[in-house]
Amino acid sequence: MNTINIPLDKLFLDPDNYRLRSKPQYVQMPDLTDDKVIGTALQQRTFNLVAGKNNIEIKDLVDSLRSNGFLKVDNILVRELDNDKGYVVIEGNRRLAALKVLQKSYNEDFDIGLLAPTVFDGVEVVKYSYQNPEEYLILMGLRHVSGNKKWDRYNQAKLIAELYNKGLSVVQIANKLGVSNKSVIQQQLDAFFAIEAFINDDMAYDNDTSFNPFDKFMIFIEVLLKTKVKNWLKWDPLRKEFLDKNNLQRFYSWITPSFSISDDEEDGFNDSDLLDPIIINHKEIRLLNEIIDDEESLIRLEETRSITEAIEQNEGFTKKKFSKEIAQAEKILRNIKFGPSLLLEENDRFSLNNIKKIVNRILADES
């Protein structure tokens, strides 16, 4: 690797940047040649994905560059394109996009603060050469999977899956990325294949174009950690897929928005009819695990669209909760320090008598 200065207009955003993989608008391009990389339309599309609407995704960097100038906090890594076309940024795409925003402002005579305009003539970057795609993946993994600049969990898992698909075992991946806990790599790998099936299911979430399936990654992590739910879906660790397709479609319906059904056929539906998913986040999978074997509770879940109500109606969970609270009450009472100096107030005696009555009633119902 060596440091060089490159004019801003010779630096190109990476259309295959891993940060973009979990955006609904991202489309992976097959046979992405260097000529395609520098195409005007593709560069604009990539900029839109990196910068976000009204540049909201890079506003922090734009403000920082205006306030502080260009500080070399982290290296911008680049790969040289064929035939002297320039360089594609493989690490530092947000900073590149922010610089391009400020260059446009400067060219239109807007204030760019403390940022010296000379940076547009030569941005300091580090030229990086790798022999094969695996080496590039390892570099990205060391920075964004096990490093201190972590991607979101889906993008981490996608990189792990790409290494796995190149023939590396879970142990080898963990060793190359410096991850001591091999089970974490296995969890992310399995969850990636599980969510990919969901993402690629055309019928799973076609009701709502704003729905982002990538946001559900942690739900699939939790599903694979909860034995009852995993078994209900019949997870096959070798094929890395859920085998019970009927239950799987049912589960998909719980984690995606759905339209309410009107009794009047002429009503149709509009945006206001769109209902939130029954299961919103991964923590609710822990509750689902308590009732997944009880069909009556699952029907209740679907009727009320509430995991809380389904749990409250589940006899097994209620008994477990009751036992837990009884044990907690016993622990509290046992830890009270009795002695000659303990003088009970009238309200204390009243509360204790009420506890006694409750206990007697419970025991009487049991006999």
From TrEMBL:
All residue ranges annotated as the ParB-like N-terminal domain in the record: 42-103
Taxonomic superkingdom: Bacteria
Protein name: ParB-like N-terminal domain-containing protein
Classification via Pfam families: ParB_N
Coiled coil: none
Gene3D superfamilies to which the protein is assigned, alphabetical: 3.90.1530.30, Homeodomain-like
InterPro entries given in the database record: ParB/Sulfiredoxin_sf, ParB_N
